[in-house]
Amino acid sequence: MTPPANVSRRAVLGGALGLAAAGVLGACGSNKGTGAAATGGGGSKVSLSQWYHQYGEKGTQEAAKKYATEYTDATVQIQWIPGDYPAKLSSGLSSGNGPDAFEGHLERSLVSSGQVVPLDDLIADVKDDYAEGDLAANSIDGKLYSIPMINDPQMLYYRKSLFEAKGIKPPQTLDDLIAAAKELTDKSVKGLFAGNDANNTGGGLTTAAIYSTGGRFLTADHKIGFDPAKVAEVLLKLRKFAADKSLLLGAPTDWWDPSAINQNLCAMQWIGMWAVPGMSTALGADEIGAFPFPAAAGGKPAVVSGGWSAFVSAKSKNIDAAKAFTKWLWVDKTDLQEDWSLSYGFHIPPRKSLAAKASKLQSGPAAESVKLNTDFGVQGDPNWTPAMSTALTDAVTRVIGKGGDPETELAGAVQKINTELSKIFG
Known about the structure:
Elements: H1 9-13, E1 47-53, H2 60-70, E2 75-81, H3 85-95, E3 101-104, H4 108-112, H5 132-137, E4 139-140, E5 143-144, E6 147-159, H6 160-166, H7 174-184, E7 190-193, H8 205-212, H9 228-243, H10 259-262, E8 266-272, H11 276-283, E9 288-291, E10 303-312, H12 319-332, H13 334-342, H14 352-356, H15 364-376, E11 377-379, H16 386-402, H17 406-425
Parallel strand pairs: 1-2, 1-3, 7-8, 10-11
Antiparallel strand pairs: 3-10, 4-5, 6-8, 6-9, 6-10
Helix pairs in contact: 7-9, 9-16, 9-17, 16-17
């Protein structure tokens, strides 16, 4: 689902470069989880606060409120948080004035600072219904701290008619992609829109570039998981988009909104599957195609798999009640999970059983997106910290935007990342 406009997609979806650092929370209300325990005979119910970021899709806020009113074992108050949700959430959790239950993305710091509780018991009976990658992305040191709510794969979507008019096929290599973007660019249409960040560090495009080399941010034993020399080659090629003037910049909305491709401002757009209904309505489902970020030499095509997950705050005064509500909504109520995934944009339900029967995802560009995610999707790593993300993002910015030497810049980033890894893992 669409993130707030001023927050990068890694801050929202897990796995991309722009992981949000902690910020200052404005006046967003106090913890609502201080009510008395639920009692029989007309006694008061526990009052819980559940936080969501401000989704862009119509009907999402109303749906969240509807789900809460259906729960009868506690009074659940929905807090719809606009603006920089990750920063406000971080401040709220740290101060104790945050939610009882909330959506977010797992980071090791949430666990090491004691801000969230393990949730393994909530999915014990249905654990096999989740993909291993989803469980890994929501676990730290073998314990599950968040329950997947939706999966949002990001890839390149394109206008089939524009490709056909130029005799262009979906790119198989990065050189193909660069050439296609140049060929598709004219006075009114740019070849590619990957965000209003001229350095290509917004969204998940740079993340996909790293994945396309066969690398990952980190290995399973917490080492750097990419080859800087291979990534340097990709970054040098990414410079060509700007040199060819084939990138759309200054679009009315950022990469996560389909307005650019819907308004014929670009032939290709890096965006998530959540936008498929909007693109299909504006352009026709037969007009929309999808392909992964092409493989680098020796690598593999890449789709960036992100999503949102449900947490319970360790600062809640009603942890058991918050866990019970979270289990009810995100484990037991499969009908509501299906509604959340498929009625407000398209998302892949994390439960394998739900995804298998999701009829809306079984045809057209939605089905194509699901298959590409199955074949090439890569989940984020909860051990990849904001400091690591910043080090790499800054290096990419200097390489692409300022002409920096990629090997030198990446070497500096690697050094900073290794310093962070040493702090955490010794």
